[in-house]
Design a protein that fits this description.
alpha+beta, elongated
């Protein structure tokens, strides 16, 4: 008589366990208003003021003379990864083209003048951080730019056609700008043929 209730009790427990494998509880909730918005990039450049002005025009330079300037890179957008700078240089002889060339200038153009324009220094640094951490060129020597013509220093000819990549981007929403400083010296041994000639350096700053 005591065995039957025990069997029935065991059977009842097994039925409850089996029922759990067939039943499934569900509860559905909805999370709304989840928006994914793309960031923006808005690079602009100033030159000690609202625009880039004649400060970067290397004009009427005498051998041994120097010219320096600073650009400030700002990001009005919300995102930024890095900056690329592409350089291009064009040298020309305006006097020869106009038929009023300097008396001592016998060249039909200004070929080679960019080799006489030495990049004394070039730095790219976060505003207020100091120049020492961001020297691209120091005393005419660089670890990131190659002296392609082998004259012992970096010049505008070495910059022509190159791109410097993976430079720190200015902070989004103008949290901090980047200072780009550069000094160029007209080599003391530049020949008379370059009198009245000019070199135009173009720098393209690309925020990625």
């Amino acid at each position: 008589m005591k065995v039957i209730p025990s069997v029935l009790l065991i059977s009842f427990v097994l039925l409850l366990v089996s029922a759990g494998t067939w039943a499934s509880f569900t509860d559905v909730e909805t999370a709304s208003g989840n928006a994914i918005t793309a960031g923006t990039m808005d690079l602009y450049i100033t030159d000690h003021g609202p625009i880039i002005d004649h400060e970067w025009t290397l004009i009427n330079m005498a051998p041994g003379g120097t010219k320096s300037g600073q650009l400030n890179l700002h990001n009005n957008g919300t995102v930024a990864d890095h900056v690329e700078i592409t350089f291009s240089t064009v040298c020309q002889d305006p006097g020869y083209e106009a038929g009023t060339n300097e008396e001592s200038d016998t060249l039909d153009g200004a070929d080679g003048m960019d080799k006489c324009l030495k990049v004394v220094s070039m730095s790219y640094t976060k505003y207020g951080s100091g120049i020492s951490s961001g020297n691209l060129v120091k005393d005419g020597v660089s670890s990131v730019i190659t002296d392609r013509n082998g004259n012992g220093y970096i010049d505008l000819a070495d910059l022509n056609g190159i791109t410097l990549d993976n430079l720190e981007a200015p902070g989004p929403m103008q949290t901090y700008p980047i200072d780009f400083d550069m000094e160029v010296r007209f080599d003391e041994s530049a020949p008379n043929d370059y009198q009245g000639d000019e070199c135009i350096l173009t720098m393209k700053f690309d925020l990625k």
